[in-house]
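Quick check before the chapter quiz. The format below is the same one you will see on the exam, so make sure you can read both the input and the output lines.
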Amino acid sequence: MSQPNAPLIGAGTTRRATRESLSSAAARKVERPAPLRQAVYEALLDLIVNRTLKPGQHLVEVELAEHLGVSRQPVREALQRLQTEGWVDLRPAQGAFVHTPTDEEADQLLAVRNVLETYSARLAAEHATEEDVEQLRKLQGEGVAALKAKDAERVVAANAALHSFITRLSGNTVLAEMIATVDRRVRWYYAPLALTRGKDAWTEHAEIIDAIVEGRPDEAARLMDAHTERTRAAYHEHLDATRVK
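Here is the expected output.
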């Protein structure tokens, strides 16, 4: 990565790509009351997760700083942290780039998600109350509405909210913490599938909810296992289709 006083290295096309990506998203100025470096980190991570900044895209510090309304120093610090966590690749004499996940990385994460969420659905079916049922239906309705509106970002958010609530219903704090550690990466992988997989995914969600509501833990677990496996398969199909293009 460039030194503080060194000029940024990047072709004009990569600078334009970053500028265009950011200009197409609503400007997000960082609020000062929060620790600045944390706020900048969270803002950049959100831009990566929702794919405003796409895998492989060159990250130009000055453009990011301008978009967030901060100096380059906290952006530089945030990029270093994101690199440590595997969201960004820092290349000598080239700069920072959004990480492009390998097939193996994605497969391993989605496999872990399958195990955790299958167990979560089983426990949720054993603990759900009438009030929980109402919230499950509400979250399902939000996802279906977002899908009808063809709002991919809203679909991703609704999907994450529903799965998160099912995890909370499990009553297992350790399980919830483990799922939370993979949540953002799951959303990152799911984003390009949100609309194409959407109809099937939300039909599957409805079936899972029915099993939870009816107190059928074995069925809830079976349905969640099938649901997460189909999402994993859909992700690989998406990658294959992208490569063909």
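If your answer matched, good. Strands lie at 58-59, 88-91, 95-98.
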